[in-house]
Amino acid sequence: MSVKIGMIGAGGIARSHLSKLQKIEQATIVSIYDVNRDSAVQAAESVGARAADDVDSLLNPNEIDAVFICTPQFARDDLEERAARKGIHVFVEKPLGLDLETVQRKEKAIAESGIIHSVGYCLRYFDTVLKAKEYLQGRTIHLVQAQRFGTTHPALWWRTQSMSGGHLADAVTHQVDMVRFLAGDYRDVTAQFGSNSIAGVFPDATIADAGAVTFSLKSGAVGTITESCVSPYHGGSEVKFFGPDFFVHLTGNGKTLTIADKEEKVTLTSTQDPSLEQDKAFVEAVATGSREPILCGYADGMQTLAFSLAAHRAAELGSKVTL
Predict the structure, then answer these.
(1) pLDDT in tens, 15-37
(2) Is the pTM of this model over 0.70?
(3) Exposure winner among 171, 250, 252, 282, fewest CB in 10 A?
């Protein structure tokens, strides 16, 4: 079965999905909409699709089976609900939004509609990450350490807290999600965010340039997440899991996995493109009607967002916030 796809958004992440979808035999890109008409036309021409005049004309169940929603988190409005009401399957980029109540309302509408849904936490699809999940199953983790360092995003909206949610919600959300995926749900969080340097790079920025987050998991494990978006001379990411008889280390956003225990120490580096694997899984799920290939649905992605929002709330309150 060919899966007919519409794309809302024609920016960098949307174009990345378009390039992946062109490699998937079952996927047919039908239409693209963006508030910037020229961007939509250029993207559509590059894949042999049409540029839709507006969202309503794109969200036509007679023309598409599924839609990729790739607008920034501040510009989603009620797109997911509109698609769900029409029975159109939905892929949504992370993070799901900036307000938990709004996202909860959308999750309810999606669940009630029965559509297939997926959220863009692509790192879950690395074979190395799945091997780590298999290894950690049933083992006792007592400490988690995660970090992500890098440089700023060029978009004005990204450096505006009310539009992006900050570095933790927008980018480090991948590490937040990896901890959940591999070690279980969060129980509580405390956090501090600083802004010592970002004004020197972007005087109009309202996001923090660094964050130090501590948390506990429902399992009883404790951990930290440290992050900075103003780190031009040192970048990268890693997540470490410590147990009494093992150590698991994921680096490069999950691309490389090291497992050490009393039996052996093994390092594996993935050759997969997790974004391609993610898009394949969504297309396959729509084609077959089975959600099984999808590793992160909307409710799951909502829980990852809840942690980031809770961390900022904890920083504002100066106290622990329970999830």
Answers:
(1) 999 999 999 999 999 999 999 99
(2) yes
(3) 252
